[in-house]
Amino acid sequence: MAGIVVHKGNAAAMDRVNVDTDQIIPKQFLKRIERSGFGQFLFFDWRFNADGTDNSNFELNQPHNKNATILVANENFGCGSSREHAPWAIQDYGFQVVISPSFADIFYNNCVKNGILPIKLTESEVEELLTKADKDVYELTVDLKEQTVSDDQGFSAKFTIDPYWKEMLMNGWDEVSVTLNYEENISEYEKQRA
Known about the structure:
Strand content: 15-25%
Structural class: alpha/beta
Number of helices: 8
Shape: globular
Distance between the termini: 34 Å
């Protein structure tokens, strides 16, 4: 996985509460076993009309949200079932950072394990970001090392993250990579046990 130290990108606003994993990636698309290819189905029931055409009223279909890499959502994002396909779809679509006042615990953990940075900010901070990103192209800078989110209009907020997940995200590691960092120690231990 690619590491995240500083990420600058356009933010898309999704001012909805309780967005569940069934909406993030509907169940009919869970048949694939690889991690790629899910982005085309992200928010499928909201993004597309019944005839398959784009739903022009949906947030991500707005012209100013094309190529956004930061998703700003309202509270309890990622609730519902624990499907790991949800962060896969978010990442495959192009989002690297998701900002919300709160996340479902399993969804949050699935994000960090798959290289997506989930950021919890206060409700008022998220409301400000949602307002700024609602109608126009809006760029944010996320600095994981300093644990800040900022724009060029005076907004700046600090966030917290577990040091373990921070190190993994900054280095682009998954849990297998962390284990392989101890490969010499593991080999030495195996020699002693032989």
